[in-house]
Structures are given as C-alpha cells and as structure tokens.
UniProtKB/TrEMBL annotation:
The chain crosses the membrane at residues 96-120, 126-150, 162-185, 191-215. PANTHER family: MULTIDRUG RESISTANCE PROTEIN. Belongs to the multi antimicrobial extrusion (MATE) (TC 2.A.66.1) family. GO terms for molecular function: antiporter activity; xenobiotic transmembrane transporter activity. Keywords: Membrane, Transmembrane, Transmembrane helix. This is Protein DETOXIFICATION. It holds the Pfam family MatE. GO terms for cellular component: membrane. The lineage of its organism: Eukaryota, Viridiplantae, Streptophyta, Embryophyta, Tracheophyta. The keyword Membrane applies. It comes from Genlisea aurea. The keyword Transmembrane helix applies.
Length: 244
C-alpha cells in the first residue's frame, strides 16, 4: 500500500506538469492538420504544396525552435530553483532575441521556397503553390518563437494549467475561423492560412496578457536592458539545444 501511494503521488506530480504540455503540443499540431484538411477540400493541387512545406520546411524550423526553447526551460528552471525569480524574465527576453535572430536567418528558406523546390526536382506547378503557401507560414513560425519560449518559462514556475486552457481555446478558435474564412467568406487558400496565423498569434497574445497582466509578479519585472548583457552563454546553449 505504501508503494502504491508513492507511485500514485509521483504520477500525479508528473502528469500535473506533462498533461498541459501534451495538450499544448496536440492543439498546436492539430491546427496544422485542420488547415491541411481545409486546403484539401479547397484544392487537391494546393494540398500537395502545403504538404511539402509543412513536412520539410515547417518541421525543420519547428525542430530547431523546440530545441532552442529547451534552453529557456533549462535557464528558467535553474533560476527558479535558486529562487532568483527575477532572472526568469531576463532569460525569457534573451531567448526571444536569440530565437528571433535565428528565425530571421532561416527566413530565406520560406521566401525562396519555389526555386528551392525546383532545384530539388519538384514539379513546377507544385513548387509555385508551395512557394505561395510558404510565405503564409512566415507569421506562424514567428509565433512559434514566443509560444514555445513562454511555455517553457511558465512550466519552469509550475504555471501549467494556463498553457492548456489557452491551447484548447486556440484549437476551438482555429476551427471556427477556418470554417468562416474558407467556406462562408470563400477566401480559399488564403483564408485557411489566415486562420492558422490568427489562431497561432492568439496563443502568443493570450500568454502576453497573462505575463504582463500581473500573473507572474515574481518572475516578470518588465523589459530590461539586462537582457542584452551576457547573451553569449544563452546563444551557445540555445544553438547546441537547437542542433540536438
């Protein structure tokens, strides 16, 4: 009975942290799948373009950003454990700077997707469609920077439930916007992608409201010039995490 109680208590602690993260990742990926299904209804040809962009470009960038956001989790976790709560906000701002610069360096992959896919022998019409859709993905991948790093920042201070609530709201909003833009307004591919971008930035704005609105009083003291100092260690840790 004693062992069973210990296992139960440890399992509760694990799921308290893990479940909101699972909900967040499933909701985030779910928005991509929902968009893909709407594009498939609109144009099977553009579905092929969407598929190669999402499979090759977005997953490539997403993998790097998830790895780099792990550095945020490490640094914020250490600061939380050492009770240097004010440093968590500093580390978050440094991570934003590093990740935004990294994403901007990778941006040409999206801007020049059509010639890149042509270079690798993709059918011309699909390469053109992929290039058009890749441009629409630019706001989405920038939203990922803030969504992922803030998620790690909140998880480090055990503020997990808010992540799950925002993610579920995002998924519901995305479905409604996709229906409205694609089928009611008849905006086609642009409508489906606009729904993806709006719902993705909804997550970021909701997280900003939570942080800036005073729900993280110990770890967020406002924007600071200290975020510009000692940034090299953050760059090294982020880059090594991103490569992994």
């Amino acid at each position: 009975d004693d062992l069973r109680t210990k296992v139960y208590e440890e399992s509760k602690k694990i799921w308290k942290i893990a479940l909101p993260g699972i909900v967040s990742r499933v909701s985030s990926f779910g928005t991509i799948v929902v968009t893909q299904s709407f594009i498939g209804h609109i144009s099977p040809h553009d579905l092929a373009g969407y598929a190669i962009v999402q499979t090759l470009l977005v997953r490539f960038v997403n993998g790097i950003l998830i790895g780099m956001s792990s550095a945020t989790e490490t640094l914020c976790g250490q600061a939380f454990g050492a009770k240097q709560y004010h440093m968590m906000g500093i580390f978050l701002q440094r991570s934003w700077l590093v990740d935004v610069v990294t994403m901007t360096v990778l941006l040409p992959v999206f801007l020049f997707a059509t010639p890149i896919f042509r270079l690798f022998g993709e059918e011309d019409s699909i390469a053109v469609s992929a290039g058009y859709i890749a441009i629409w993905f630019v706001p989405f991948v920038y939203a990922l920077i803030f969504a992922l790093t803030i998620q790690m920042y909140l998880q480090a201070q055990q503020k997990n439930l808010i992540i799950a609530y925002i993610s579920v709201a995002q998924f519901a909003l995305h479905i409604l916007l996709s229906l409205f833009f694609s089928f009611i307004l008849k905006w086609g591919i642009g409508g489906a992608m606009a729904a993806l971008n709006i719902s993705s930035w909804f997550v970021v704005l909701a997280e900003f409201v939570y942080i800036f609105g005073g729900w993280c009083p110990d770890s967020w003291k406002g924007f600071s010039k200290a975020a510009l100092k000692d940034i090299v260690p953050v760059v090294k840790l982020s880059m090594s995490s991103g490569v992994m």
